[in-house]
Amino acid sequence: xxxxxxxxxxxxxxxxxxxxxxxxxxxxxxxxxxxxxxxxxxxxxxxxxxxxxxxxxxxxxxxxxxxxxxxxxxxxxxxxxxxxxxxxxxxxxxxxxxxxxxxxxxxxxxxxxxxxxxxxxxxxxxxxxxxxxxxxxxxxxxxxxxxxxxxxxxxxxxxxxxxxxxxxxxxxxxxxxxxxxxxxxxxxxxxxxxxxxxxxxxxxxxxxxxxxxxxxxxxxxxxx
Length: 224
Fold this sequence. Notes:
By secondary structure, the protein is of the alpha/beta class. The protein is 41% helix and 15% strand. It has 9 helices and 5 strands; from the N terminus they run H-E-E-H-H-E-H-H-E-E-H-H-H-H. A 5-stranded mixed β-sheet has the order 3-2-1-4-5. Strand 1 (25-31) and strand 2 form a beta hairpin. Helix 3 crosses helix 6 (159-182) and helix 4 (103-109) crosses helix 5.
């Protein structure tokens, strides 16, 4: 039996909400919940109501992106993510906000609360007033008086969530590249703070630096 072709992120969820009268539908996603170092970043993306893929495709002409569609950031190469970042941050029908929460705050309030805080900051930086939130994940932002829906693997299904995943990922990767120059011994440019074999070897040799999350195991044990 032939396996059904997996659908790429699309505007079906946004279009349904637009039909219900919601104009400003926001897709939310984060990058950096798992690393041992650096901030967690979140992006909030609002697609102009009734945007059609045809207009987006016209915008892509000449941008060397015709051979692939938008996807969850984890399914794109670094080069593809950078190209999509440039498109998403310059398209006149897209409004976005980016929230960044440092490793110090992560250590203070925990990564889950820091992730939600990053999303709230991203929402605050939008130039529109959100009417509905589509959140990639299994949680909602309880203290916000905004209609919202959590969608597991939303970045694989919903256009605005996929866009948010790309914005958040590129934002965080660029920050980690800067930290790589400040702390060259950790090779952050290669692993972006995740717990790779190379990263653990550097931690064993040099110990944690100022951007490591000291409440994360095994850093917590080594720092006690």
